[in-house]
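pasting for ref
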Amino acid sequence: MNKSAVILRTDQQTRARFTTAEFLRMGESGAFDDIKVELVDGELERMNPPLTAHAARQMQIGIRLSRLLPEARIMGEIGVDLGNDTVLGCDVAVLREPAEGNCLLIADAFLLVIEVAETSVARDTTMKRFAYAGGGIPNYWVVDGNRSIVHVYAEPVEGDYTRFHSVGFGEPLAVPGTDGTITID
């Protein structure tokens, strides 16, 4: 046995991997009461707390979407169950139908997922993009506050979106599932 194989095995033994069910039980027990975490491929990832610019833009988007859609189809800070070992939190979502009960939603429930990226653009345009596309979420926006643009992704195929374009802040942005548009600034 070579030395690198031993190191790899030791590293794998020290990592704790969790299922979605275990992650939910930890949350219910209060393990994450003072931190924000996501479950990515079985591993916990700590999230930065949202700052004021993020919160203001998230609220703006929710309000503008509510002018086009019934409020019951718009969610903020909702958990997205993307399989047995990945649970992500999105900033704003448009659902296909109103949600019932108190639960995480599976990818099929979403028409559009939106991430507000003031400090997380790289993560949101790579890892989260691939995760949402892999889950089959049909539309995904990353609101890039640093560059004042919205990255618009659509039509997921084999783990990535096949359509992509950017829309500048202040320009009309077509809202999937409606005939309307919103602007973000």
